[in-house]
Amino acid sequence: MSEEKRCWLDPEDVTPRKGSIYPAPFDAPVAGREKRALGDALGLTQFGVNLVTLPPGAWSSQRHWHANEDEFVYVVEGEVTLVTDAGEQILGPGMAAGFPAGRPDGHHLINRTKTPVIYLEVGTRAAVEQAQYSDIDMKARKDGGTFVFTHKNGDPYP
Amino acid sequence: MSEEKRCWLDPEDVTPRKGSIYPAPFDAPVAGREKRALGDALGLTQFGVNLVTLPPGAWSSQRHWHANEDEFVYVVEGEVTLVTDAGEQILGPGMAAGFPAGRPDGHHLINRTKTPVIYLEVGTRAAVEQAQYSDIDMKARKDGGTFVFTHKNGDPYP
């Protein structure tokens, strides 16, 4: 079977990408995060699926919510702290979380333990999208390309 | 936090639905399959996420492919046999598979072991969809509602 048509994989064979594209200093808490883009590797385009490893202390992202894209998380290994407007909740292996598009409740995951956390994340791929950040002066917008990050008033980051 | 806005869950708390809506006799190999609709329980609408248990001998579905919906599978527990036009491939815990919309290669999963298999499946929710079945005289179509199954020539099943 040609590589192009292979429909299965072992995530170990997918090269992870590390860190984030946030402007400094917002990239720092996310710097240790590693994402393996399983969906892309399998040729999927309608939603993204990443296998994410958070080393001790790392965050999944800055706390945010999406206007147009549903998001889903399934914990594979370790215990991770989910932070939302409602507070904190520890999610262990086999537990799941979901964030419907447009629900204005910022969320992110933090590894407060001493061992790595591994989780699967799924998100719809909308061509046009906005993300709002709950705790920092940042917002993001994409319009067919990649996200552009600005201050909340629209001023660009350097 | 109200039940409506809870954004996390333990799949153990989601009631599974058993079996399939295929016409007989095509429902028989799938009769033991249990699906927990995690995405629905979390309020997601753009894609479905199910945690599926296949007891020994059970199939995920009849072998099929979708015209409009991407599909993704991640094995949580056990070893499952993936069947496609290319043959058979065993997928163990942590392995993944993906089936891009419109790729005409029918696929399904069979538990040929003596212990349950558990996997996560993700599929886009298209309003209009067609499914083609590789090994049997059946096709399916939905147009805003649920799937309707017919013979390949369009004649209804009783």
Automatic annotation (TrEMBL), chains A, B:
The answer on whether this UniProt entry bears the keyword Metal-binding reads yes
Record domain Cupin type-2: where: 51-122
Domain of life from the UniProt record: Bacteria
Record-linked Pfam families: Cupin_2
Q: Which UniProt keywords apply?
A: Metal-binding
* InterPro entries noted in UniProt: Cupin_2, GPI/OXD, RmlC-like_jellyroll, RmlC_Cupin_sf
Q: Which GO terms describe its molecular function?
A: metal ion binding
Say if the entry is tagged with keyword Transcription. no
According to UniProt, the name of this protein is: Cupin type-2 domain-containing protein
Lineage of producing organism = Bacteria, Pseudomonadati, Pseudomonadota, Alphaproteobacteria, Hyphomicrobiales
